[in-house]
Structures are given as structure tokens and as C-alpha cells.
Design a protein that fits this description.
binds pyridoxal-5'-phosphate; seven-stranded mixed sheet; globular; transferase
Length: 369
């Protein structure tokens, strides 16, 4: 297959912009006339130093990160941060909890991991049906919590916060793995933000952490050194060998975002793309069913069933097969929820999304009763 014939709607690792890949291809064998691959650069070299510094500067300018926030590049993915967050921020004194707002499988996993280290307070009633976010007036927040955790976009269930939770001074920790740099956010409202790279900001291997500096130095004594925010910060993320290639790719993606309208451009595109898909769903008279409440529908991952709310296996298989024949791939829903999931990260174009929306309309016309 040729790349130009494939439309990749993968939930991650996700499609990267063509311009990024073309540049990476050049630098793979000879980085900026150094005669070595970008993969072969020493992490202590001047060349790599400028790669990591530029990546940080570009991220700072894209998100308007205030001076009193540090940017760290770490390994271990989003899952690593499920452990790093409690190890760095939990206070084990009686009465102090770590509060988790569980709205899907990723925040559920994060809460489960945190329970290994200390007392976790679930802010919302336990559920397995992740289709909405109860109103804030119903939340059970502990004013003495050491932090409040939430996931801004639940990649599997398609539940996205359209607001930043109010925590009345308790540090707010956010997993932005699947929607960082897709909308403007006021960084000063957060204690910690983390995001794995492989969806909206690069390839797998690196996790970005943005942390308010007064939260450094609170780690539990037995924390693994590579997960310690303070240690990583003191060493400018070079405590050990960092994921150099992944940081390099991330830098290219940040640059691409800057050249394509910045965060405002990404936000606008995300609304247009997700709107195209939700419009087809909403005008299908129940043929396509998205289980998520309208007020928290994700702009990044659109899950839906075909035929009924429970989904019709035959129709869903046919949909996936026909879409694949037309070059539209990676549309199968997560195995835990089934159905279809359309992932619309920043490298997916409006044109590709329009082709998918047209296919959905066509499929509807052929198969509606
Ligand atoms: N958080 C979110 C929102 C995710 O979507 C994922 C993975 O898809 C993770 C965390 C886990 O990330 P990783 O696979 O990098 O550990």
C-alpha cells in the first residue's frame, strides 16, 4: 500500500504529519550535517541539547506555560505516570486522601494504581458505564486531599471534559494523554499535567510532564529515581538516557503545530472534524448510536455502535471491512466496548474526516431499514 492511499484513524500510536516524517527521514541517516543519525546523537551533546531545549521552548510557547512551571520529559508512558503521580504527591497522613474523578477506563486504572500507595477517595459513585460526567454539585471531594486526579479525555469511552474541575486550592492533576495541545487551557489551574506522546504530540516512548514548581520535592522516600519529578527536574530530564528519538519527533510535531495555526488552529480543526462525524450520527435516526452524553462528547475519539445501542455484529463488521477497502483503517472500537471508534488527532485532516463522514452516510443509506 502507498501512504497516500491510507487514512489512519488510529487511537494511538497515531498518524504523524507527513511533513514531520519527511524531515525525520532526512535526519535518520544524517542529522543536520553532523554525519550521524539523530538516533545516534549523545544525549549529552550540544546537538541534542538544542533539540530538547527547543522542544521545551516550543511547548511553552504553544501552551503559554507560566515561568513557575517546569517541563519534564520522562519514560514509562501514561501508565508510568499512574504510579509516578501518587509517589510524588501523596501525603500519607491520616485524613489525607488522593481524590480520583473516574470517568472511564484510564482514570479507573490510575485510581487502582494509586491505591497501592495510599488512601484513594473516589469522587464519583463507582460505575462501569462510562457515558457522562455527573454535575460538580454531586462530587464528593475531600478538602484535605493531597491532590485531585482526572483524565481530560477518556480515549476508550470517548468522554471528554469541556471544563476544568474546581478543586478549591487542592492541586489538580490531569492526564491529557489524548487531548493535549488540542485546545487552549489555563495552565495555572493545574498542579501537574502529563501526556504520553503517541497520540497528539509524537511517537511512543516519551511522556511530557508539566508541573508547578512548589509541588516538586514532596515524593515518598521509596520512589524509583526515574519517576521522581524533583530528580528529573534537577537534571533537566537528563538524569539517565532519555528517549532521545521520541523527544526529537515531539520537537518536530510542536514545530508543525506552530506552523499550522498553533493550539487555536488545532482546536478549530478538532471541532470541525468531530462535528462532521457527530452530525452523521445525530442525523441517522438511531442507525449510528453514540452512548456518550452530548455535553462531554470527545472531539478526539468518537465511539459508536451500528444498528442499535448494543450494536449489530454483522453490520459493524461490514462497516469496518468496507471502510478498510477504501483505505480507512484502525476504526475498530476498543475490545472492552466493541463497535466503532473514530480517532481524530491533530494529524488527521478535515478532508480525510469528510471522506469518512461521506462513507458513513452512504453506508447508512444502503443499510437503514
Ligand atoms: N491515559 C490515556 C488517556 C490513554 O489513552 C492511555 C493509552 O491509550 C494511557 C493513559 C496509557 O498510556 P501508555 O500506554 O503510554 O502507558
Amino acid at each position: 500500500k502507498e501512504r497516500e492511499h491510507v487514512m489512519n484513524f488510529s487511537p494511538g500510536p497515531a498518524k504523524l504529519p507527513d511533513e514531520v516524517l519527511v524531515q525525520a527521514q532526512k535526519d535518520l541517516t544524517n542529522y543536520a550535517g553532523t554525519g550521524v543519525s539523530v538516533m545516534e546523537l549523545s544525549h549529552r551533546s550540544k546537538d541534542f541539547e538544542s533539540i530538547i531545549q527547543r522542544a521545551e521552548q516550543d511547548l511553552r510557547s504553544l501552551l503559554d506555560i507560566p515561568e513557575n512551571y517546569k517541563v519534564l520529559f520522562m519514560q514509562g508512558g501514561g501508565t508510568g505516570q499512574f504510579c509516578a503521580v501518587p509517589c510524588n504527591l501523596m501525603d500519607l497522613k491520616p485524613g489525607r486522601t488522593a481524590d480520583y474523578i473516574v470517568t472511564g477506563c484510564w482514570s479507573e486504572k490510575a485510581a487502582k494504581e494509586a491505591e497501592k500507595y495510599g488512601s484513594v477517595n473516589l469522587v464519583l459513585p463507582k460505575t462501569k458505564k462510562y457515558t457522562g460526567i455527573p454535575p460538580e454539585s454531586e462530587w464528593n471531594l475531600n478538602p484535605d486531599a493531597s491532590y485531585v486526579f482526572y483524565c481530560a479525555n477518556e480515549t476508550v469511552h470517548g468522554v471528554e471534559f469541556q471544563f476544568i474541575p474546581e478543586t478549591n486550592g487542592v492541586p489538580l492533576v490531569c492526564d491529557m494523554s489524548s487531548n493535549i495541545l488540542t485546545r487552549q487551557v489555563d495552565i495555572s489551574k493545574f498542579g501537574v499535567i502529563f501526556a504520553g506522546a503517541q497520540k497528539n504530540i509524537g511517537c511512543a516512548g516519551c511522556t511530557v510532564i508539566i508541573i508547578r514548581e512548589d509541588l516538586l520535592g514532596r515524593a515518598l522516600p521509596n520512589i524509583p529515581a526515574v519517576f521522581c519529578y524533583n530528580t528529573m527536574n534537577t537534571n533537566n530530564s537528563l538524569f539517565n538516557t532519555p528517549p532521545t528519538y521520541s523527544i526529537y519527533i515531539m520537537g518536530l510535531v510542536f514545530n508543525w503545530k506552530k506552523e499550522n495555526g498553533g493550539v487555536d488552529g488545532m482546536e478549530e480543526n478538532s471541532l470541525v472534524k468531530s462535528g462532521l462525524i457527530y452530525d452523521v450520527i445525530d442525523n441517522s435516526s438511531g442507525f449510528y448510536v453514540c452512548p456518550v452524553n452530548i455535553d462531554c462528547r470527545s472531539r478526539m475519539n468518537v465511539p459508536f455502535r451500528i444498528g442499535s445501542a448494543e450494536g449489530c455484529d454483522v453490520l459493524e463488521k461490514k462497516f469496518l471491512d468496507q471502510a478498510a477497502e477504501l483505505g480507512m483503517i484502525q476504526l475498530k472500537g476498543h475490545r472492552s466496548v466493541g463497535g466503532i471508534r473514530v480517532s481524530l488527532y491533530n494529524a488527521v485532516t478535515v478532508e480525510e474526516t469528510q471522506i469518512l463522514a461521506d462513507f458513513m452516510k452512504d453506508f447508512l443509506n444502503k443499510h437503514r431499514n
